[in-house]
Amino acid sequence: MARRIAVLGATGSIGTQALEVAAGNPDLEVVGLSAGRRWPELVAQAQASGARRIALADAASAAAAREAWDGEVLEGPEGLTELIAGSGADTVLNALVGSAGLGPTITTLAEGIDLALANKESLVVGGELVMSLAEGTGAKLVPVDSEHSALLQLVEAEQGQRPGSIDRMVLTASGGPFRGRSREELEEVTVEEALRHPTWEMGGKITIDSATLMNKGLELIEAHHLFSMPYERLDVVVHPQSIVHSYVTLADGAVLAHLGHPDMKVPIAYALGWPERSLPGHRPLDLAEVGSLEFEPVDGEAFPALAIAREAGREGGTAPCIMNAANEVAVAAFLDGQLGFNAISELVARVLDEVDAGPAASFEVLVEADGRARAAAEQVLAG
Ligand code: NDP
Ligand code: MG
């Protein structure tokens, strides 16, 4: 029987690629789709995929979709909860952007439904809560992020070894469009330049996070929770070709790496099909054709966001949630032309300084900390 999937954030970069993966795979049946407000695209996706239920966060968009389509149209946060819990999905792909993804992640796992997780912010904001929920309900959480998909596959490959043989996990970073520039040179970069990512075609928010390296900071925290890996054993290396997706070093000094073309459909298909591996029509990697692979350390002075994230991750509790919220506000302000590039990480550092962190005891505590951090960030922007 086909696996039934619901795709949250279907109109985005990951969402549309997931629907392409599903369209080429008879083992996947799309039963539900969600978006924020782009209803014409969502309705077209429902018609193409055969899904009979959609959810839109925006009420006016939901009303317009109802006029245009005879399937079921849900709205708002409750509508999204209903889509997750009531669609009979075996796997939910969460490809929402930002901390708005945390609630749907929690709903999915609480329902005992397997989660293919692209929304890394869920783990950054509520990592402890999310992982303990997955453990408690037995729902499987499979990451979609390419580095973490690689690390999961390396952990699985290594499972025949004695426990504890993985020494370190190393995430690769493309370095983004500004690799090699000094902090001074970064002062004047434009939104357009920042949106021109060298190896990946992605949504606006993650593309800016990749340019500041905050994306890699979020991914460190994501890896920490997914693999229970202490921060001292997590590293980042810059690798401009994005061919090595991550690697692990073992106790005897050997290294296991995961390689492939930079194509998000591969980790998306892996997460949707887990534990089966199937992606017909993939392009095999020919290393002779690639020629050379380069690696270099991160320039921490030009890209302070990575160290800020590592520190917030180490502090734990609501610190990563506060950092994430400040970053979301800062990235939106940068995309809006209100804030310079270097000011993104400055704003995040300042909010982390001003807003007190505490234990991340519940979903409500996290929502409250997220709100406080956003308010503090808006205040800095207004001043
Ligand atoms: P996009 O911005 O392309 O898409 C975001 C999707 O979420 C859209 O469908 C959008 O709907 C919907 N959405 C946005 N805000 C809300 C909201 N408040 N409530 C409900 N729906 C909302 O993002 P990406 O696909 O690039 O990224 C999605 C997630 O995957 C992010 O967490 C990102 O970090 C992660 N990721 C992405 C990668 C990539 O290659 N793109 C790689 C690795 C991870 P609408 O169209 O109506 O606005
Ligand atoms: Mg990634």
Characteristic terms for this protein:
11 strands; binds magnesium ion; binds NADPH dihydro-nicotinamide-adenine-dinucleotide phosphate; seven-stranded parallel sheet; four-stranded mixed sheet; alpha/beta; single chain; Rna Polymerase Sigma Factor, Chain: A; 383 residues; Rossmann fold
Characterization of the model:
It is a single chain. About 50% of the residues lie in helices and about 15% in strands. The chain starts with a strand and ends with a helix. The protein is an alpha/beta fold and about 375 residues long. It has 17 helices and eleven strands. The longest helix is centred in the last third of the chain and has 20 residues, at about 365-380. It has helices at about 15-25, 40-50, 60-70, 75-85, 100-110, 120-135, 145-155, 185, 190-195, 205-210, 215-225, 265-275, 285-290, 305-315, 320-335, 340-355, 365-380; strands at about 5-10, 30-35, 55, 70-75, 90-95, 115, 140-145, 165-175, 235-240, 245-250, 255-260. It is globular, with a radius of gyration of 20 Å. It has two domains: about 5-145, Rossmann fold; about 150-265 and about 290-380, Orthogonal Bundle (Rna Polymerase Sigma Factor, Chain: A), CATH 1.10.1740. Helix 5 (about 100-110) links the parallel strand 5 and strand 6. Helix 5 runs parallel beside helix 6 (about 120-135), helix 6 (about 120-135) packs parallel to helix 11 (about 215-225) and helix 11 packs parallel to helix 14 (about 305-315). Strands 4-3-2-1-5-6-7 form a seven-stranded parallel β-sheet, sandwiched between helices. A four-stranded mixed β-sheet has the order 9-8-10-11, with helices on one face. NADPH dihydro-nicotinamide-adenine-dinucleotide phosphate binds near residues 35, 57, 96, 119 and 206.
